Amino acid sequence: MKDLRSALTQAREQHLYRRRRVLDSPQQPHLVVEGRSLLSFCSNDYLGLASDPRVAQALCKGVAHWGSGSGSAHLVSGHSRAHHALEEALADFTGRERALLFSSGYLANLAVITSLCGRRDTVVQDKLNHASLIDGARLSGAELKRYAHNDMAAARKRLTTARGECLLAVDGVFSMDGDLAELPALAALCREHDAWLMVDDAHGLGVLGKAGGGSLDHFGLDPDQVPVLMGTLGKAFGTAGAFVAGSADLIETLIQKARSYIFTTALPAALAEATLASLGILREEAWRRRHLEVLVARFRQGAQQLGFELPPSGTPIQPLIAGRSETAMAWSQALESQGILVTAIRPPTVPEGSARLRITFSAAHQEQDVDRLLAALEDLAP
To answer: Are 223 and 94 in contact (CB under 8 A)?
Structure first.
């Protein structure tokens, strides 16, 4: 039997051990973590809606009406009018015929890839894609072909040698680097090679584009150019769960075939009510996206003045590359000693030699919060 304790000890020695922190406050920039006040820059609550009182009120009203649990899978007795209304609202928001709710983005990505591809097919992916896309390809049994990050020549080569049904899956915004996929070029390649294009826009929806429509909105792409769109609700939306949006035939196929939909209990209906409220705020309060842009620009200017080399990211995800896991941990601990929480990201989440601080911003941050972070980073500057 495998020696689990030795493996855990080795992870600690290699600075790869992960530890959960216990929060004593709602999700917001100023947290209470295990009794200590910390200014957080490591949440995906990009629009500051996770503790918005209007969303919380909608959740409470939903619980009062629907109770605390859905009781069953969507296809049994768990699909409420609230779920249905949210799916229709998400379809309208994304400009698609239909949308389908899932309990998590991981399950949504597994659902799409395993439903559209099988053993005689091909899945093409960027090497920096999220783990759920990679796992979906492996679970499908299709041949997985990966190309170097944002390398369009390599992507074309993979598509040219694909067999059977072909799906190209890519992050709209890469979660650890904050840069965007070359979606217009990928859409053209997929059209040329008669391949599905699937975009996981977990970190783009609500944040990018004039209307918050994500990376597709940012590039001005039509739904026909990206047949499959996945979005999560636990980031910019501030609630939980995920959805897939696309044609009526795509959604019906997922309902009939996707094991991670068929055999999973539905999210509580009250969460659907809360998400309907957050979607309304997201669409109406464009100032949140504008404020985020100001914060990101302020940080990038300050960090570059300190001598940090920043990857080309205009999103709320701003990585500071440390290289070694030990260095990333030391940076994180140094910031925490000054009351700032930024998690060290290490392999296997990122490739070897690219451990980092993944700094993320929320519309709930203020400019003085950014200035405090920059002041703390002075001691780490090269």
So the answer is: yes
DSSP category for residue 23: B
Residue 362 annotated in active site = no
Q: How far apart are CA 335 and CA 329, in angstroms?
A: 10
Amino acid at 67: G
Amino acid found at 246: G
Q: Which residues of the chain have a pLDDT value below 70?
A: none
Calpha distance 106→132 (Å, rounded): 5
Domains, the chain, ordered by start: 9-40+286-380 (3.90.1150.10), 53-284 (3.40.640.10)
Q: Would you call 77 a catalytic residue per the annotation?
A: no
**Residue 16: its pLDDT value, please?**
87
| Global pTM value | 0.95
Per-residue model confidence (pLDDT) at position 368: 98
Q: What separation in angstroms does the CA of 322 have from each of 36, 197, 296, 331?
A: 26, 33, 20, 8
Q: How much is the pLDDT for 369?
A: 98
210 is catalytic: no
Give rounded-to-5 percent helix, strand, coil for the chain. 45, 20, 40
Task: Give the amino acid at 114.
Answer: T
Candidates 51, 60, 17; CA nearest to 31 is: 51
Can you read off the two tokens belonging to residue 345? 């990201």
Which of 132, 175, 215, 278 is the catalytic position? 175
Q: Which of 74, 83, 145, 203 is catalytic?
A: 203
* Angle of the 269-284 helix axis to the 81-94 helix axis, nearest 10: 30
Asked if residue 97 lies in contact with residue 246, where contact means CB atoms within 8 angstroms, the answer is: yes
Cβ atoms of residues 193 and 159 within 8 Å:
yes
At 293, phi and psi to the nearest 5? -60, -40
Model pLDDT for residues 334-381, shown as the tens digit of each residue? 999 999 999 999 999 899 999 999 999 999 999 999 999 999 999 887
Catalytic residue among 235, 325, 332, 354, which?
A: 235
For the chain, the distance separating the N- and C-terminal CA atoms, rounded to the nearest angstrom, is 46
**What's the pLDDT at 162?**
97
Whether the bond into 348 is cis, omega within 30 of 0 = yes
pLDDT at 344: 93
Which residues sit opposite 230 in a β-bridge? 200, 244
Predicted pLDDT of residue 176:
94
Distance CA 134, CA 123 (A): 9
